[in-house]
Amino acid sequence: MSIRGKVVIITGGSSGIGKALAIELVKQGAKVVINGRREQALAEAAREIDSTNTQVAYVAGDISNPEVAKRLISEGLTRFERIDTLVNNAGIYLGKPFTDYTAEEFETVLSTNVAGFFYVTQYAAAEMLKTGAGHIINITAGVAEQPIKAAPSVLAALTKGGLTSATKSLAIEFADKGIRVNAVAPGVIKTPMHPVEIHDFLSKLHPMGRMGEVQEIVHAILYLESADFVTGEVLHVDGGQSAGHW
């Protein structure tokens, strides 16, 4: 299926995977609406994604806020007249021993990773149900399903693991309504989130012995976008992490 002409909402779109995805989608003729917390960074990303400002729009704000989520969907409808795909990319990873997490850290991760999925997905799904077509893609985390002793991360398991279950639940709920729901579960990807000085350690967390590249996640998302008979799938792009113990 061609990407050309589609309208795609991307949360966490000011950098990393979200920005790279938006750039590729616009190259292929799609229109995108990106979201992020920092307005200046978001505006700069939008200019990089499409200097003509005809295929990109943005809404700044915390996606866990239902009013921001509503504005994001409204911007897509106002600017580009419909919503074809939602990519729930915004997320926080905070790995540390379980008893070291603070109440504030718990609330922050839960807010972004769960509420940041819930509200915008509700609003997007409501519009998709009106047209009988759409696609929701959730970015989860391989470590949520395959714990790694060297990288304790129970909040990822709790929140991103919840998205994995929600992906399958919504896929079944919407399967006969023209809406597909899938997920990509990355390993550790080279983004600004991970300082270069720890890349060697992070590479060793994968059986393949390296970190993933942003474009490898973009390619996985594009595959799911084109795979009309695939729903409820969690596509692991993790260098073998999910295959088992190593």
Automatic annotation (TrEMBL):
InterPro entries cross-referenced by the UniProt entry: KR_dom, NAD(P)-bd_dom_sf, SDR_fam
Gene3D superfamilies hit by this protein: NAD(P)-binding Rossmann-like Domain
Record's signal peptide: none
Ketoreductase domain: residues covered: 6-160
Record-level Gene Ontology MF annotations: oxidoreductase activity
Single Gene Ontology BP annotation: bile acid metabolic process
Superkingdom of this protein's organism: Bacteria
UniProt keyword terms in alphabetical order: Oxidoreductase
Stated family: Belongs to the short-chain dehydrogenases/reductases (SDR) family.
PANTHER family: OXIDOREDUCTASE, SHORT-CHAIN DEHYDROGENASE/REDUCTASE FAMILY (AFU_ORTHOLOGUE AFUA_5G02870) (PTHR43639), SHORT-CHAIN DEHYDROGENASE_REDUCTASE FAMILY PROTEIN (PTHR43639:SF1)
Name this protein carries in UniProt: NAD(P)-dependent dehydrogenase (Short-subunit alcohol dehydrogenase family)
Organism, scientific name: Paenibacillus rhizosphaerae
